[in-house]
User: Fold this.
Amino acid sequence: MASTLEQRPPRPSAGELRRALPLMEEALGSPVWIVGGYVRDLLLGRPEAADVDLVLERADAAPAANWLRRHWGRTEPVVAFERYGTAQVSFALGEGGRFTIELVRARSEAYSPESRKPRVRSATVAEDVRRRDFTVNTLLLGSRGRIQDPTGMGLRDLRLGVLRTPLEPEATFSEDPLRMFRAARFAAQMGFRLADGLEEAMRLSSPRIRIVSVERVRDELIKLLLAPHPAVGLRLLLGSGLLAETAPELAAMAGVAQGGYHLGDVFNHSALTAELVPPRRVLRLAALLHDVGKPLTVGSSDSGPTFYRHQQVGAEIARDLLRRLRLPGAEVDQVARLVELHMRPIQYRPEWADSAVRRMWHDAGELLPELLELARADTRASTFPGTAGLDELEVRLAEVARAHPQGLRAPVNGTQLRAWRQLPEGPWIGRALKLLVDATVAGDLGADGATSPEAAFLYLSGHRSAWEPREGERGWSGGTA
Ligand code: ATP
Ligand code: MG
Assistant:
């Protein structure tokens, strides 16, 4: 008595995939194994990843992907990469969620020193796993929950928390230098240590990272930054020379001493700050980069090193670096802005006038929550980790937000300005509006919330030279009006 509910094919998921393995093996006439991150994370009890990798002993990738698609009654396309003998199918789960399966026919790869493109031939599963990056990523999960450890080292390394390459480390890293970044990323994600000889091999092979595309490096760097222990990964990148190769601006922070206020040098302080902010991309990047202007601005005084204008210089360096790493423009802007503003909450003192608090609230805009998180982490990563001042600032900022639910804006708009001055449009309107916003923030247009158009016009009349149309520009009407 099958109900219609039972007849509907199940929604694709890792669990359904595992249930489907015996049928799939029968249909394809080949053993099918789940390999890599899914198996590793399952055995570690880490949260399930959104993607699963399959290795097929004696079947091609694209027909296997098609079988799965049909089995689940789905219409998503199978993307086949014939050159590599791989295929991918990505199922939409609703609400933006996806379940992606990558398939590959077991193969071995041979690399030549000049190129990243390997020569590929089909092989056994035991051979296949030797081309993978680390033994903890070579474990296989088959039908009915069978676990296989073809290198004989994967389960032990997983238990001991060790990253070890299946082949000799230098060969593994030289073949695909991104694996060195992956080592740092896995150390940051899982707290694993590197097997003996691995760091040395990374030091020797780090210049080869230049053959890897900037997008692949960027994606690994972001995963590392979002991990529970980014500082661990960042130190590995620094020590191996990988950071100097890919982001020399970050490596330059190492060894730059700071005054009594900060823990360690600029690099270690920055890595710790990144670890202390919540794992959001913009925030972690801003934390890593907040002091990146210090190496270029270091000076000395009787009371120790100085770093005048390091926020502004740092914002420019951050912008250049993140653009080079091809991050989205909006993220680049946000990170650069946070770097530029990062000292403001830290400089807060209880004697600040309300106008100064309003100014910070206005300047931070939508970034205010991130700016405060950054300031808290920056403070906690120092030798004076007290955040009572920031707590007080936050209370005062919340009062400003309550008083100005629409934000701080000029009390008149451009149309009203033109009607008042009887002048055509021109750059003068922008200048007048900016002046009015500044005056509103400073409290010069009357008490909070009591600003009126009349007060705005009066204020502008008293500051004509700052905004009136200038000779030759649009809006200029030929003489002093
Ligand atoms: P995560 O999904 O958390 O990023 P993962 O280990 O699953 O981690 P993937 O990039 O999904 O990483 O790759 C899946 C598997 O493919 C890995 O576990 C590993 O066995 C292999 N692999 C991935 N990238 C490489 C590489 N650059 N060199 C060698 N093997 C790799
Ligand atoms: Mg994966």
Q: What stands out?
A: The pocket of adenosine-5'-triphosphate (ligand 1) is lined by residues 36-37, 49, 51, 53, 132-133, 137, 176, 178-179 (CB under 6 Å).
